[in-house]
Amino acid sequence: MTGKPPPHTPAPRVPAASTAPPVLIASVVLLVLAVTALTGCSAPPRTSPEAPTGTSPAPGGERWRPRPGLAWQWQLDGRADPSVEVPVYDIDGFENTAADVARLHRDGRKVICYVNVGAWEDFRPDRDEFPRSVLGRNNGWEGERWLDIRRIPVLKPIMERRFDMCRDKGFDAVEPDLMEGYGNDTGFPLTAADQLRYNRMIADIAHARGLSVGLKNDLPQIPQLVDDFDFAVNEECAQYGECAELTPFIEAGKAVFHVEYAEPTGEFCAESRELKLSSMRKKLELGVWRDPC
């Protein structure tokens, strides 16, 4: 699949009315003014107000680690519509601004940055940074071509800049798309080893920026990659009878964000609940509409 003004600052807290006598208050004020004059009018460092529930950094600056069962919204068609009452939003990193991310954070949401790491897209602003030598066959979507993921020295700096964008806009995590090129007709002789090397590089780039990162599809390599990724994103595992293959993520305490397009919820939600997947049905264009389990 394809596809800030600064962070919100709460209003200053208004102190409660004082019950101290007026003379005492006046004395305190004079003392404060005298101390300020002696210290060159320097104020103490300001501490950041408490962030809304669900958006505060983890202790010690650790990255976000979503747990199984979190409800989510996946909207890649245009700018995010914040009306869905769920704790996690997955939105397009290019089409949404820092202000859009900050707005979702104000509502207590975690926000995932969708970025395509496996195919070139002719509609992205950095399209000219990809040399033609790394562009393979069309991947079935208009304006997209598979990338030669063996060319790490070429692709790594481009992906680093994309992940810098996600970090700078305030995202909590990244959803890197098309991480299973080795199983497709890309125009390049890609191997499973090539894909493992590239996918681990992608995880390292995210983690170096304090972002959590999800493994998108690539079911056969879950056993080798579950330790490298913080959650999983899956399309249509129910339609193809593959959802149980995502169990290693659940057993590791990591969320699996799952979507179906053709299967009605009545056909897959019971299994999803049993497997502790975060499942819903979406239309293929990934707009606002959703039908969750």
UniProtKB/TrEMBL annotation:
Residues 41-67 are annotated as: Disordered. Residues 72-286 form the Glycoside-hydrolase family GH114 TIM-barrel domain. It comes from the Bacteria. InterPro entries: Aldolase_TIM, GH, GH114_TIM-barrel. It holds the Pfam family Glyco_hydro_114. PANTHER family: ALPHA-1,4 POLYGALACTOSAMINIDASE, PUTATIVE (AFU_ORTHOLOGUE AFUA_3G07890)-RELATED, ALPHA-GALACTOSIDASE. This is Endo alpha-1,4 polygalactosaminidase.
